[in-house]
Design brief:
The protein is of the alpha+beta class and 112 residues long. Helix content is 30%, strand content 38%. Strand 5 and strand 6 form a beta hairpin. It comes from Paenibacillus azoreducens.
Amino acid sequence: MKKAGIIVALLLIVIIGAYFGLREEIDRYNPLVAEEYVYVQINQQPVPENHRYRYKLNGFNAEGKEKKVTFTASAVLKEGTFLKVMAKGSYTKEWEQLASGDVPKTVMEKLR
């Protein structure tokens, strides 16, 4: 009985660890996770990673709810640049650069 408890505990640790380690991949293929646009402003330096630059930023969806997004770019983006990021949970499908006039007003107020 004691061995069964230890095995169950170890399996839970492995499953939970795999979820957090592979969260982006899980969200990518999970049909229950909805896609949404998140608006962000570049306000910090990226972390270089495998000839790309990883950004971890806080942004807002169209309703004004704060979301954390992580994405990569092939070049360093200029500070103050506005982006529209297609996020699906932890997975970023795509992003595009926006002019400040293209950002919804409710989101622009929160980004500044």
